[in-house]
Amino acid sequence: MTQHLAADSVRIQFQQRIVISGGFIHAETGKITGLLGRNGNGKSSFLQAIFGAIPAEFKSVRVNGEWVPELLSVKGLAAYLPQKAFVPDAFRVKTVFDLYDTNIQALQNLMPELKPLSSQRMDQVSGGERRLIETLLVLFRPVSFVLLDEPFSFLSPVAVERLHELLQQEKTRKGIILTDHRYRSITSISDSLYLLANQRTYLIQHPDELIRWGYLHE
Ligand SMILES: Nc1ncnc2c1ncn2[C@@H]1O[C@H](COP(=O)(O)OP(=O)(O)OP(=O)(O)O)[C@@H](O)[C@H]1O
């Protein structure tokens, strides 16, 4: 059965400054929902507030019509990839996959480049390798929804391609919300697309709207 996640009336303020006054997004299992926006427009804050990692002045988050105050408090519901690295440096890659109950061998078959990394410590892998590892840890959580903040950062084109394939594969089991500045990656993979601008989210129906809102040049 398709599951639905709807967040609306999201209002986020830091001190006196309103960052988002009317945030709305809808995601569902089987689909990838892309979120675009210029630097500082509030994409990370929006995802964090929906997940429950930061407080919002106001928000309404519903899953299948039921109000859920914090996604993060409901077991098996959602997982979130923060923009910044989150796995401690001293952990070995294999240990982290074990802790996350993720089958590293199955992933290594899909991504052979992970093989030589499994015995390395997190602070010994490259920036792109670390990003990929942390993205996979979150993407493969046994949850209904994943929220991914800039999973393509630091990734080489071939790693981006592989991650595209894994996202397409995982969306058959999950609803995925994705934000990144590699906008072509987002537009090519998303089933629905939102833009954050002027403190609001807008559902984008046509790529031209990205130009009209000043996200892209003509
Ligand atoms: N904890 C905080 N305290 C005060 N201001 C904050 C805090 N977190 C974020 N901001 C501000 O809120 C605004 C939105 O930040 P956010 O990181 O959500 O934007 P973003 O769209 O994800 O940006 P980018 O694409 O550059 O990562 C920025 O102006 C930022 O400086």
Automatic annotation (TrEMBL):
<dbReference type="InterPro" id="IPR003593">
    <property type="entry name" value="AAA+_ATPase"/>
</dbReference>
<dbReference type="InterPro" id="IPR003439">
    <property type="entry name" value="ABC_transporter-like_ATP-bd"/>
</dbReference>
<keyword id="KW-0547">Nucleotide-binding</keyword>
<protein>
    <submittedName>
        <fullName>ABC transporter ATP-binding protein</fullName>
    </submittedName>
</protein>
<dbReference type="Pfam" id="PF00005">
    <property type="entry name" value="ABC_tran"/>
</dbReference>
<feature type="domain" description="ABC transporter">
    <location>
        <begin position="5"/>
        <end position="218"/>
    </location>
</feature>
<dbReference type="InterPro" id="IPR027417">
    <property type="entry name" value="P-loop_NTPase"/>
</dbReference>
<dbReference type="GO" id="GO:0016887">
    <property type="term" value="F:ATP hydrolysis activity"/>
</dbReference>
<keyword id="KW-0067">ATP-binding</keyword>
<dbReference type="GO" id="GO:0005524">
    <property type="term" value="F:ATP binding"/>
</dbReference>
